[in-house]
What we know:
alpha/beta, Nucleotidyltransferase, domain 5
Amino acid sequence: MVRVLGIDPGLQRTGWGVIDLQDNRMRHVANGVVTSTQSLSLAERLDQLHTGLMEVIETWTPDEAAVEETFVNKNPVSTLKLGQARGVALLAPARSGIPVTEYTPNAVKKTVVGAGHAAKQQVEMMVSTLLPGCEIAGADAADALAVAICHAQHAGNRALAATMAAKPTGNGRPAGNGRKYR
């Protein structure tokens, strides 16, 4: 079994979701949102996000983490602040010794919904479908669960590719093209 932490970074609201993956079956474990206080300085807000994510990591002890990449806003100041929050989202699991993988928003949506430009409501609906009985703590938590689901799907594909590459063919050589999959 592998426990995956998905993170949807944001300065005001950072969504998180934890799923267990066993034999290509996913099970919801927990989800929520870490918030920061808008009246505080940027450094204090980033500290709040870090503290909150560290509590999530200590409570749910994930084996792997997946973080959604930042998309560029029209407002460069907002993009920079989001990037700093994303840095915290990458740092917290990395400092805990947890491997971190990054996914673009389009890759997450395409994996979970089947369309790279899906609406937030479609993502939340598909997360509920893929994780039955899951009570989602809002749109940010749904996005974080979608990131975890995306990671689980891609991890399954990587494992299958590695198995196929190692399986011998009739000529005694491994199948595949000799490339390593990551």
